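re the bet — no i am not wrong, look at it urself. input seq straight from the record:
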Amino acid sequence: MPKFLTMLDPRPWIALAVVAAVLFCIVKYKDAINETTKLKAQISQDQAEATANTLENERLMSRSLAAIASNHQKEMQDEKDKQDKFISGVRNGTVRLSIPVKACPAGAGANTAPGPGDIPEARAELTPAAGSALAAIATDGDNAIRQLNACIDSYQAIRTVINVQTK
């Protein structure tokens, strides 16, 4: 058989094309594995950074909340001490409480109608028990306001940390 006819035989060329295709696929497969490995490493790094940021934000929030709680407890204790001292003064008579009352005009007849500015202000002194009870009501209201303010401060502290994180 002539030599040029053996060159026209497609089998070696097909084998060469198959080998080239297999080599091309192997190279592409290795590139894909390398790219996948790089992406996995990047994902792991991003997850580690996100975890570190989350932990740092959690520490910041915990410190902020602890400071707010400590300040709130100190404020509540100071106010309790003041209120206890005040109520003690009311109970033992060193602090006297009174409220304004309308006084009947002296010597006024049944037909005399006093003008709005003619009535002198009189004061009625509260008993120690009544004074203590009113002071306790006011204290309860003040304590509720302080607790709400501490709640608002806590919310603001958390919001600040979260807003800094998202920027």
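see?? The mean pLDDT is 87. told u. also The beta strands are 98-102, 121-125. so pay up
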